[in-house]
Amino acid sequence: MTSTVNASTTSGVIVTSDTSGSLALQTANTTALTINTSQNVGIGITPSANQFGNNLQVNQTILNDDNGGTNHLSKNAYYNSGWKYITTDYASKYTQSLGVHSWSTAPSGTAGNTVTWTQAMTLDASGQLGVGTSSPGSKLEVSNTVNTAYDSTNTLTSGQTARLTNLSTTSGVASTLFFKAVGSGGDNSYATISCASLGTGASALTFGVKQTSGYGVVEAMRISPSGQLIINPNGGNSPPAPAVDIYGGSSGTKGALRLGDNTYSAGHVNYWDIGRDNTTTGNFTFSEKGTQKGYIDLTTGAYVAVSDSRLKNNITDITYGLAEVLRFRPVMYNMIEEKENSKKHLGLIAQEVKAVIDEAVDDLIDESQQFYGLDKSGLVPVLVKAIQELSTQLTELKAEVATLKGAQA
Description:
Layout: E1 3-8, E2 12-16, E3 23-27, E4 30-35, E5 41-43, E6 54-58, E7 61-65, E8 70-75, E9 77-79, E10 83-85, E11 89-97, E12 100-109, E13 118-123, E14 129-131, E15 140-142, E16 149-150, E17 156-158, E18 174-182, E19 188-197, E20 203-210, E21 217-223, E22 229-231, E23 244-246, E24 257-265, E25 268-276, E26 284-288, E27 291-296, E28 303-305, H1 322-325, E29 331-333, E30 345-347, H2 350-356, H3 380-408
Parallel strand pairs: 1-3, 5-6, 14-15, 22-23
Antiparallel strand pairs: 1-2, 3-4, 4-5, 6-7, 7-8, 8-11, 9-10, 11-12, 12-13, 13-14, 16-17, 18-19, 19-20, 20-21, 21-22, 24-25, 25-26, 26-27, 27-28, 29-30
């Protein structure tokens, strides 16, 4: 039994007393609130046998305080020697304990059976939010234990760890992840990663950055629906489809692509710049650590090595000439990977040339990993010297012939 206080519609307030220790407040003979001997309160329901401190229950929702610094707000679950289902249904729980907030879920279970919680989200005392993890290591950490799977057509079939969705039906809409950094001077810096709708059911992944002045974010790179990587796109317009498009700045000769490593030489990182000279010639240039080494001529397409005297020192006349040229063995050949009936190439053998003119062939650090190359342009001065020697010999022969003709006259 339960002691009751009933606000009757016919007899006024009626108090019924017993020794159960429980109290029910009624209106029009219907129980509106029940307080049991554990001081648990049920509104419209008899409170479950919850063992946590003080509890307030409305239907299957329970708010409790364990008097030890932890609060729980649970749906369809109560604590009695472990968490249990109130009715046969799904369950969920929010917990606040010593500055840590956590949200947990549970699958549908049978009334009275044990609830097995999965902690879905955690906000720790330092303000770090974790989704799918109970111990986030950064301001936002999203974790997933489901394998990300692509089928034979490279279509994602499962395993999405996170999703950003823009439900707008406007053409060209994007779902955007926005980054902001505030520098020491309070100058806000921005960057974005977006999934941009192209209005055809296809999409592009775009990357935007803030320019040095102003407030707008400008697209710096995109990946097209066909997998084409476009760097510094022109207003998002896609050129004919190579695998990678890189556009340099509107001026300068720095180049659009830099290749390098972390090896320091003479105080500088080793790197090459490759790109178009947009300032003067329009040639496609190759520069090493800022010094141009060669270029592809805009008009002819020929490769031209830099030969400027301002870039040279220790200049001496060569000693090679006709004698060395006569030792060369011109050959015809196929590369090993070519078919037997392939047209043959004309050339020289690098090792044979090195034995005659060492400077024309670079040394190898590891012959098991490297192959010899031949600087054919480096042989041109030798050929010029050989022609000069032949010219000298020809001049001498002409002089001798003239002398002999004069003696016979």
